[in-house]
């Protein structure tokens, strides 16, 4: 077994420093690969064993307008670098509580905010990258020898970031010299491994409009039919793939969509889009990593944020407020964006943030209701969560929940104002003030930063991610459609060379936290030679993208059984090697959310 892992690690290491090609390419193409699509002749770049065509305009849209497929002729186009990312919320200033907006609840100043904010800026906001409203750009990463007619399977990666920040890449992931030592948020990491395993795929990623520019919600936006513009951008990117990907060597009939966090919410939203009609014209499979059918209110709940933007831009007295906003000063709009709460701020991931409300047009109801009614596309699905989804979002919010009274008030006032006192009391019983039952789970009395930190993290993680996944699985057509479920545990990576010593080898405070799997495993932030979770994540994902089953990888991994309502089969990714378990933890607590959805809308 050890020799198998060592040999695979050596193969992958070599692929990062040399071209792993199966057929010859010219010296000129090796330096500057080219592809012709119907509106541009694109020159890309070589990056290890893959070629990349970056920053390609795929759609056009004015501010607060629907996006349309790009049609202008570009002629010769330089696709050797990423273009601008979409405007981002400035997480550092929000997390440090420097905002003067009364929209944010906060009682205690802290020095933690700037540190967490700087980390978030590094990982999500890609420090140093140009931002622009003209940001609807797409990237294609393919094996270095891929050519038109190869008909390679395709994965469309939808990035996360809470619909507030993020892009398909980070500044660190582009620096080869430190690859394997930092978080990597770039689909190229998966494409590289697919080439090394001789199971090639093509990766596609795209920007989509964020925060106020892509997810403003209000009665005005609803009446104008302008809700969920960011989701529409994603949909147009899928249409672009159908039209153009064959020129890069891809097969438009073999497309899988994959997303994490807000990207996972988006994947599920596209399963529910138009109640599933037309989905199979765009993709044949889906991977939803940490995010399911959210419980959302109507657009009016976000009205205060829209009104604040209107006031900030001087559009309060305008007859047509949207028309006024379309020509308003960019900096004034960004000021209003930065007034809002942040998902990992003191208000955590609550209803103070922008989500995708149901719009009565493409999402005809709240996603959780559409899922419960079975009004969604039925395609092969992989879905799952990290063990401790809520810890990252509770680092600052714990400062608002130091006492039991504060704990209940925090959720009642900020998250669920429609929940009754009786429902809140029952919720407190289901998530007791017992640090041994909190998150990070199975860590006993450790990691209790404040008295209610682990309790808070348990509630936030279960409501925001785990319960959503359970709701999706409960109503997905698992009897006729193949579905695979997973949960991931993080420990100090040792490639199985050291024994699992339980809490002694788990990450302190954060545990198996949100997004770690994508940063370090799926895109190989931790390489094969260091992490068996990376091996299992990448091998099963590549297999699913290629064959619609996670088991056709040819490696010595435990078989991943289909999920069923009776068996609750779940693949548990662990550093000691994956094993099959059951999705039977905290059933009563999570079912409470799903049994009372109208009380827990955000």
From TrEMBL:
Keywords: Hydrolase, Signal. Residues 32-587 form the Carboxylesterase type B domain. The keyword Signal applies. Gene3D superfamilies: alpha/beta hydrolase. GO terms for molecular function: hydrolase activity. Pfam families: COesterase. Residues 1-22 form the signal peptide. It comes from the Eukaryota. The keyword Aminoacyl-tRNA synthetase does not apply. Its EC number is 3.1.1.-. InterPro entries: AB_hydrolase_fold, CarbesteraseB, Carboxylesterase_B_AS, Lipase_GDXG_HIS_AS, Type-B_Carboxylest/Lipase. Belongs to the type-B carboxylesterase/lipase family. PANTHER family: CARBOXYLESTERASE. This is Carboxylic ester hydrolase. It comes from Colletotrichum kahawae (Coffee berry disease fungus).
């Amino acid at each position: 077994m050890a020799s198998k892992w060592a040999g695979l690690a050596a193969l992958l290491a070599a692929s990062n420093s040399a071209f792993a090609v199966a057929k010859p390419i010219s010296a000129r193409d090796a330096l500057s690969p080219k592809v012709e699509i119907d509106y541009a002749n694109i020159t890309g770049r070589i990056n290890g064993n893959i070629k990349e065509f970056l920053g390609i305009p795929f759609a056009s849209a004015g501010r607060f307008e629907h996006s349309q497929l790009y049609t202008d002729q570009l002629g010769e186009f330089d696709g050797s670098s990423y273009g601008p990312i979409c405007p981002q919320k400035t997480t550092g200033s929000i997390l440090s509580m420097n905002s003067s907006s009364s929209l944010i609840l906060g009682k205690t100043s802290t020095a933690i905010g700037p540190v967490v904010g700087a980390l978030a800026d590094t990982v999500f906001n890609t420090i140093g990258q140009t931002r622009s409203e003209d940001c609807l750009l797409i990237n294609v990463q393919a094996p270095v020898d891929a050519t038109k007619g190869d008909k390679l399977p395709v994965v469309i990666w939808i990035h996360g970031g809470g619909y507030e920040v993020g892009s398909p890449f980070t500044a660190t992931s582009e620096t080869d010299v430190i690859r394997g030592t930092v978080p990597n948020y770039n689909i190229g990491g998966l494409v590289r491994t697919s080439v090394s395993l001789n199971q090639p795929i093509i990766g596609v990623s795209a920007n989509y409009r964020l925060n106020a520019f892509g997810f403003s919600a209000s009665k005005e936006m609803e009446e104008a039919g302008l809700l969920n513009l960011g989701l529409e951008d994603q949909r147009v990117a899928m249409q672009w793939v159908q039209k153009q990907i064959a020129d890069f060597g891809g097969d438009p009939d073999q497309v899988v969509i994959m997303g994490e966090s807000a990207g996972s919410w988006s994947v599920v939203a596209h399963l529910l889009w138009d109640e599933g009609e037309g989905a199979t014209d765009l993709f044949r499979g889906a991977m939803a990593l940490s995010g399911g059918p959210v419980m959302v209110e109507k657009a009016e709940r976000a009205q205060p944020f829209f009104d604040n933007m209107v006031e900030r831009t001087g559009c309060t007295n305008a007859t047509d407020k949207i028309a006024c906003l379309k020509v308003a000063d960019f900096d004034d709009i960004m000021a209003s964006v930065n007034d809002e709460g942040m998902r990992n701020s003191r208000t955590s991931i609550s209803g103070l943030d922008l989500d995708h409300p149901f719009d009565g047009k493409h999402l005809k109801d709240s996603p959780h209701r559409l899922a419960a009614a079975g009004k969604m596309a039925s395609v092969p699905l992989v879905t799952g969560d990290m063990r401790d989804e809520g810890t990252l979002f509770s680092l600052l919010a714990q400062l608002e929940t130091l006492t039991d009274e504060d704990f209940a008030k925090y959720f009642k006032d900020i998250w669920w104002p429609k929940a009754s006192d009786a429902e809140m009391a029952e919720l407190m019983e289901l998530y007791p003030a017992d640090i041994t039952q909190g998150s990070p789970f199975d860590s006993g009395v450790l990691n209790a930063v404040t008295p209610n930190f682990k309790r808070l993290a348990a509630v936030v993680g279960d409501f925001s991610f785990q319960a959503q996944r359970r709701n999706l699985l409960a109503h997905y057509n698992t009897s006729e459609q193949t579905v695979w479920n997973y949960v991931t545990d993080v420990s100090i990576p040792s490639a199985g060379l050291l024994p699992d010593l339980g809490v002694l080898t788990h990450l302190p405070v954060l545990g198996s936290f949100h997004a770690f799997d994508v940063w370090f495993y799926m895109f190989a932030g931790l390489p094969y030679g260091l992490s068996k979770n990376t091996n299992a994540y990448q091998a099963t994902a590549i297999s699913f993208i290629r064959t619609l089953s996670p088991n056709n990888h040819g490696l010595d991994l435990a078989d991943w059984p289909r999920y069923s309502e009776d068996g609750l089969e779940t693949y548990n990714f662990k550093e000691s090697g994956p094993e099959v378990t059951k999705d039977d933890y905290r059933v009563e607590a999570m079912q409470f959310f799903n049994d009372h959805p109208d009380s827990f809308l955000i």
